[in-house]
# Entry
Amino acid sequence: MKKWSLFVMSLTLVSICQSSFASAQTGFVVGMDMGADIPAGHSESEYGGDYKRAAYNLGIILGYDYAINNKISLGVEAVPNTGGLNASSAGIGYLPIMLTTKFYPFKNGFNMFAKVGVAYLYGSGTFLETAAKDISRSWQPTFAIGTGYQYKRINFYVQYQYTQMNIAYKGNNFLSPEDYYKESYNGALNSILVGVAYTF
# Structure
């Protein structure tokens, strides 16, 4: 009887552990991530803008995943964020929209993922009255890879993301409103992010 009781308890513990670790799931995904955007490129400016400084990035994750089976899911996500290229005069923000695939090779909750898509570039912050008035808005490629640990419906992860940024725009000079200065940046952003997401 004692051996039988131990056997039943063991099965119960295994069942509880397996139920705690989630496999691929279907549902809406909401979360947030944070980290740094590190420029890697060459900038030219008539006004002294320098896009070589790293920027803090805080993003909100909005997406949907569909589980093909217990190990693989496909999805889509958009990540409005505070990152981008920063300079003393103005900045360039970006909104990535990506297709995602997640792979769960083990039963212990660890997973890997890859993302690919496009990022919408737009003018952001100002310094006094100086602003990016006519940025060449565009869609440019972006991709990401990472790994995570999923507990039930919560996934904790780390991610590397690459976003191409080849842009040119003109801004208004607050000292001479009739004058416009030109700036350009050719390169990319390397983003290092940590985040958490919940699947409903």
About this structure: The chain has a mean pLDDT of 78. The CA atoms of residues 74 and 101 lie 5 Å apart. The chain is about 10% helix and 65% strand.
